[in-house]
Amino acid sequence: MKGIPIIAAAGALGVSLPARAQGSGPMVDEKDPQAVGLGYKADSSKVDKAKYPKHDASQHCGNCQLFQGKAADASGGCPLFAGKQVATKGWCSAWVKKA
């Protein structure tokens, strides 16, 4: 609880916290073990349909509940790949329709 006043003060001063910054961090590498485990592809159209039969062409990171960027952005953060960016047009097996 000691960190809460510091975070609140930073917000009040207009200081941004870099850990949550949009557009920061390297892109996820499809060969990264976490990406391989989730079947991540930077281009949703290249998803292995035999391995992921529930994948639909309309599904991509930009319309996933987990995506932390804006739909118009080329990439954005994802809590599954902490500190890294995913392609807006990407996909992984954890995709959940944005509400």
Automatic annotation (TrEMBL):
The keyword Signal applies. The keyword 4Fe-4S applies. Residues 1-21 form the signal peptide. SUPFAM superfamilies: HIPIP (high potential iron protein) (SSF57652). Residues 22-99 form the High potential iron-sulfur proteins family profile domain. It comes from the Bacteria. Homodimer. Specific class of high-redox-potential 4Fe-4S ferredoxins. Functions in anaerobic electron transport in most purple and in some other photosynthetic bacteria and in at least one genus (Paracoccus) of halophilic, denitrifying bacteria. This is High-potential iron-sulfur protein.
